[in-house]
Each structure stands twice: as structure tokens, then as C-alpha cells.
Amino acid sequence: MSLIEETDLSDIGVAALTELAGTSRSTFYDHFHDVQELAESACTALIDELIESLSASGRPLVDGGGPEVLVAYFANFSAHARLYRNVLGPQGSARVADRIRRRIAVAVRLGAGTPTGRGTGTGEGPGGFDLYAAFTASALLGVAVDWVQGGCVGTSEDLAAGTWILLSAHGGVSRDPTLKDFARP
Q1: pLDDT per residue over 106-143, tens digit each?
Q2: Considering the domain boundaries, does residue 22 fall inside one?
Q3: What is the per-residue pLDDT for 42?
Q4: Which end of the chain is more exposed for a tag (fewer CB within 10 A), N or C?
């Protein structure tokens, strides 16, 4: 984690990792396919903390929540800005970004309850697509990544308030029953 925080992910080689860990290349490859896979594994606890922050206020992200739901989420990005900048930036890990986006989508789906026939609730596999969850997760991750790339200008509270207004205006935080259901039968 400290190496990822200090160095662009694309600049981290297996040799540097194994030297830092005091292990051999063969041991590394016994556990990981590549540096990207290690980064994903290393960031698991941080991702769990990030997803838990979406329920820190005790209110659901959709249908009843408010901007305070997002304050802890953006504060997590701010607290770990250097790491997120390197792991989610242009030279970062698409695997980590996808894992975060999928986990946010699941949190959105579970926070709103998954209406019958709207997919599996996992965001994966047949029937797993949910327009609301996909839109909200992609928007939240995109805003957070751009914010850390830009140096986290402003406060988590200000960013949460602005993001909430935009999500609300575009239907990402409220399930509108008139919109087409994209879940596969």
C-alpha cells in the first residue's frame, strides 16, 4: 500500500515489490498473476471501508438519503487521496476501479431494495444490470476520481452537496417507476 501511495501503479515492478517484501519472484507469482492483481488484493480493506462509508449516516443512498450520505464517502477519498490518485488515475488499475464501481452499484441496489424482477442484486451475471445503480455508481466514482486527481479542492461536505444536487436532477438517487426496466428476464 505504501509503495502504491508513493508511486504510479504502472511504475511498480515485481522486482521492487519482492525486494520490499523480502520475498522471491516465484513466491509473488505463486499468489498473484501481476502487479494489478496484487493492487486489487491490497486495496480490499480500503474498498470495504469506502463502501461502508456510503451507509455511515445510517440513511440509504437512494430514496430517502440526502447529501450527508455522501460526506463520509468523499472524506474517505480525501483521506487516502495519494493512494487513490495512483491506483485510479490514468496509469492506475482498471481492475480496482471496476471493483469499486461494482461495489458501489451493489450498495445502491441494496440500499434501495431490489424490486422483484430487477436483477440479482449482485451487479454481475444475467439479470444483474440495474440502470439506477449503474448510473449512480459510475457518477460517484467519476466525481471522486476527478476530485482527487485535481487535488481535492473544496471540502467533502461541499462536494457531497453538489453531487447530490446533480444526482437528484438526473434521477440517479430516486427510482422513477416510469423509466424502462433494463433487467433481463
Answers
A1: 888 877 544 433 444 444 444 567 888 888 899 999 99
A2: no
A3: 82
A4: C
Burial of 178 per CB tally in 10 Å (0-12, 13-18, 19+)? exposed
Give domain status of residue 71, yes or no.
yes
Question: Would you state the cell numbers that stand for residue 136, as one nine-digit string?
Answer: 449512480
Structural domain range at position 157: 43-169
Q: Quick one: pLDDT at residue 185?
A: 36
- Asked whether residue 17 is domain-assigned, the answer is no
Q: In this structure, what is the dihedral angle of CA atoms 115, 123, 97, 83, given to the nearest 10 degrees?
A: 60
SS3 39: helix
State the amino acid at position 73 in one-letter form: Y
Measured from the Cβ of residue 108, the count of other Cβ atoms closer than 10 Å reads 24
Put simply, whether the predicted model's pTM sits higher than 0.85 gets the answer no
Q: How many CB atoms lie within 10 A of CB 35?
A: 21
Helix (H, G, I), strand (E, B) or coil at 83: helix
Give the C-alpha separation, 88 to 95, whole Å.
9
Structural contact between residues 102 and 152, judged by C-beta atoms closer than 8 angstroms: no
Q: Rounded distance, CA 79 to CA 111, Å?
A: 24
Domain count, the chain: 1
What would the mean pLDDT of 21-43 be, rounded to a whole number? 87
Taking residue 118's Cβ as centre, other Cβ atoms within 10 Å add up to 21
82 in any annotated domain: yes
